[in-house]
Amino acid sequence: MKRIITIVGARPQFVKAAMLSRAISMRNKQGLCFEERLIHTGQHYDENMSRVFFKEMGILKPTWQLHCGNHTHGAMTGQMLIDIEKILISNRPDYVLVYGDTNSTLAGALAASKLHVPVVHVEAGLRSFNKAMPEETNRILTDHMSSLLCCPTQTAVHNLRRENITEGVYHVGDIMYDAALLFGKVADRQSTILQTLELSPKRFLLCTVHRAENTDDQNRLCQIAQALAEIAEQGEKIVIPLHPRTRIYLEKYNLLTALQQLPNIRFTEPLGFLDMVMLERNAQTILTDSGGVQKEAYFHKTPCITLREETEWTETVESGWNQLAGFHAENIIKCLSTSMERKEIQEYGDGDTAQRIIDLL
Asked: What is the pTM of this model?
């Protein structure tokens, strides 16, 4: 029996882990013998950003629940490294499986690599080429420590080749596309968020902002808030699920109260995955600085405006589904009125990425 320890800590990782855990369970019923156990680092500690995802998607209950959230990057990553190392020493898995580019990803890869446990990196090879982003450092270091690199696109494969990483590299497609196909149907059946917020399909905008480069920089966040205010004053409804860090900085910069007073802007608490999927599927346009939401927008065929100057998902821009607006209010508003020619993206696979990863293991 092969023993896998999966490490997660943030919303996108819960979704990806759900798909791979389902695939492992299905294959075990066919005679494959994998034992998967889960470490939840606690990086996302809010109920609606953590436990509700496990409930909605039937994710494996964590064997180990750590409490490493709500710290600076260094303190958080250091505490994760200490705690994960203890678990790996005691359990000696055959593989450590990590996802994406968070502090949980880096800490898991570091702990495993130093103990000579093979690291499997799902969503390997992504590059924004902006090292001011903590996520860029996390993904580069994780890739250089990984034994099996599961790339969502050919561009990711080429990025690794430029860094002389060629062994153990596979283009498997995007595991989030697996999730979009499965949970899109579930959301249609179960989510009542449109009724709760009194929204009509394709008659509202959805906005998410959470990256430190936008929230922690007063000028950038002020510009984004100005754009949202002007768009709302023009008559567009905007739904904003509010990340805890974003709320803190909106209040710090005296922006939150003014936005809350605009009748066309509706703030909500962080939402569960099914409600977010429902909003993404039914929004007229999505404005976001999230890499995951950029892709989810494409999966649900909703135009996207990215509130950054670059993206690791370059194919979404090349296909016309995504526009890079940056943070300046005038650019954001201009993108909203720009009509784009759009085409299909072939690189994300056929919704069988989880099965491909199991085959590799």
From this structure: 0.90
Contacts of 8 (CB under 8 A, 6+ apart): 14, 17, 38, 39, 40, 41, 99, 104
Distance between CA 60 and CA 259 in Å, rounded?
39
Query: For the chain, which ranges sit under pLDDT 70?
Result: 44-54
User: How does pLDDT run across 144-201, given as a tens digit for each residue?
Assistant: 999 999 999 999 999 999 999 999 999 999 999 999 999 999 999 999 999 999 999 9
- Strand ranges of the sheet holding 34-40, from the earlier edge strand across to the other edge: 64-65, 34-40, 2-8, 95-99, 119-122, 148-151, 169-171
Q: Is the torsion defined by CA of 75, 77, 80, 85 positive or negative?
A: negative
Number of Cα atoms under 13 Å in the Cβ half of residue 93: 26
Q: Report how far apart the first and last C-alpha atoms of the chain are (Å, whole number).
A: 12
Q: Which of 160, 194, 154, 120 is nearest to 314 (CA)?
A: 154
Would residue 121 show up in a list of annotated catalytic residues for this protein?
A: no
Catalytic residue among 210, 243, 300, 328: 210
Distance from C-alpha of 143 to C-alpha of 153, rounded to nearest angstrom = 15
